[in-house]
Structures are given as C-alpha cells and as structure tokens.
C-alpha cells in the first residue's frame, strides 16, 4: 500500500472531501504507474480518480463502529514519535 495513503475513517473531525480525493489520487497513481498521465491518458486517469474518490466517500459514510473517534492531533504526535524512533531524528 502507498505510504502516503492514510486511514481516513473514525477520526474527529471527519475526513474532508479533499483528503479523500488526495488518497484516491495516490491510489490511482500507484495502480497506473503515472504520477502525471500523458494527454492521451488524462481523461481516463481523472475519471478513475473521481470514481475511486466517490467509492471511498460511500465506504467511509457507510461504515459503523462502537469505538470512540480518534483525535487527529494525538495520532499525528504518535506518527511523529514513531518516525523519530525509526529514523533517530
């Protein structure tokens, strides 16, 4: 999985459409092998991003959980601590 695609479900505040689209873009880039598609592939690439984004939004909206929402600030601090431990910075 792409390292830049982050979990978007069960956070407070909820994931925005921009965050979902950014994850969809990374997913389509990974599948296609293009970071920027050629003009010939641009339409198909954009359509795929739109479709993945819409599917992801539906998925996130339909999931249910009994767990408390995670706090974005706390999760960011945990990620920073993991990075510091891993890379020694």
TrEMBL record:
This is DUF2277 domain-containing protein. Pfam families: DUF2277 (PF10041). It comes from Variovorax paradoxus (strain S110). InterPro entries: DUF2277 (IPR018735).
């Amino acid at each position: 999985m792409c390292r830049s695609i982050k979990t978007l479900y069960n956070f407070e505040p909820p994931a925005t459409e921009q965050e979902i689209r950014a994850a969809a873009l990374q997913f389509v880039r990974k599948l296609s092998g293009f970071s920027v598609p050629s003009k010939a592939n641009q339409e198909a690439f954009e359509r795929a991003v739109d479709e993945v984004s819409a599917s992801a939004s539906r998925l996130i909206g339909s999931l249910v959980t009994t767990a408390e929402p995670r706090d974005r600030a706390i999760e960011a601090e945990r990620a920073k601590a993991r990075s510091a431990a891993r890379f020694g910075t």
